[in-house]
Hints:
The protein is α/β, with parallel strands linked by helices. The protein has a domain of 243 residues: NAD(P)-binding Rossmann-like Domain (Rossmann fold, 3-Layer(aba) Sandwich). It has twelve helices and twelve strands. A seven-stranded parallel sheet has the order 3-2-1-4-5-6-10, sandwiched between helices. Strands 7-9-11 form a three-stranded mixed sheet. A two-stranded parallel sheet has the order 8-12. Strand 5, helix 6 and strand 6 form a beta-alpha-beta unit. Helix 1 packs across helix 8 and helix 7 runs parallel beside helix 9. The protein is globular. It binds nicotinamide-adenine-dinucleotide (NAD). Nicotinamide-adenine-dinucleotide binds next to helix 1, helix 4, strand 5 and strand 7.
Amino acid sequence: MAKTFLVTGGAGFIGSAVVRELIGTTEHRVVNVDKLTYAGNLGSLEGVATSPRHLFVEADICDTPTMQRLFAEQRPDVVMHLAAESHVDRSIDGPAEFIRTNVVGTSVLLEVARGYWNELLEREPGKAAGFRFHHVSTDEVYGDLDDRQGLFTESTPYAPSSPYAASKASADHLVRAWQRTYGLPTLITNCSNNYGSHHFPEKLIPLMILNALAGKPLPVYGDGQQVRDWLHVEDHARALIRVASDGRVGETYNIGGHNEKTNLAVVEAICDLLQELAPSHRSYRDLITFVDDRPGHDRRYAIDAGKIARELGWVPHETLESGLRKTVEWYLRNQSWWRRVQEGRYQGQRLGLADTV
Ligand code: NAD
């Protein structure tokens, strides 16, 4: 049955992949709520933006009256909450916006969703029974695994290191509290590092691709031996829709790619792919430059994604090798997308959509 999904942060990297997947592969309607911060880009919604099942609403999740009006008018069956400040380095330079959007914004949405759900319980119990609030979070809430063994499971204690991770951990605790205290039907997912198309070029993989193409240094923090588990964004989008649709209410699901690699190995793999696909520079690997490590930099993250595989049958389709190749090819084919971002021209783009409620 076709449902209404209210997706927050749907003009961002992962949110836009979720919206493209929902519009492209399901019959559901999508209400896409995004403030269009520097990370929001309507150019990432090309192909779905004009679908009659997609409504874009430019709004701030911290704005309670607007969120109340939106829920009352759009009557969502499922909320997928992805809006956030997401860049660790920015959270170190200026944590306040992370606390505002990630903590306060999540609490606003929980309260608005609770009011809406209570009203559904009285007037439309059938719709209330199917209602879900899915909060999208990160494996960074678990801190780091300093040994080489071990994996994060859904019961690993929280030990966030950066202001970003702490703000997401706070939001996760709020979501659990709203479920335990008020019975709000919530779900949480904690995912490893994503990569793929439409990724803002401040993040490791797109930054390295674009710097390399420009012949600029490829800055690697510390010794580059930090281990991350990489997941292709389209695999993540499919996992999120699976959990939002069929996950058990009140549960947490870890999502990972089974692709553990050091940052240095990822950068070297990008250099080798570019050497093959865009051999303009004599040796991309020569551009690798080691820079001072980030304060509080976690050494290793690794996810046990067994629960989502067992309960919901989700497994990633891409390996890091196949996904990185797809990603490098996308950046080579879509220069207009990233040149607009680099030149700051994407912010004025509106694609002729309704941009306020
Ligand atoms: P992103 O920074 O690319 O996108 C965030 C989006 O949220 C942007 O479109 C931005 O305009 C919007 N936004 C920010 N503040 C807002 C506000 N106050 N009101 C409404 N919209 C607002 O982030 P992303 O990488 O797509 O991450 C999406 C979610 O997934 C985040 O919650 C993040 O914590 C989580 N996550 C990300 C990763 C990753 O590797 N990128 C991994 C695990 C979890």
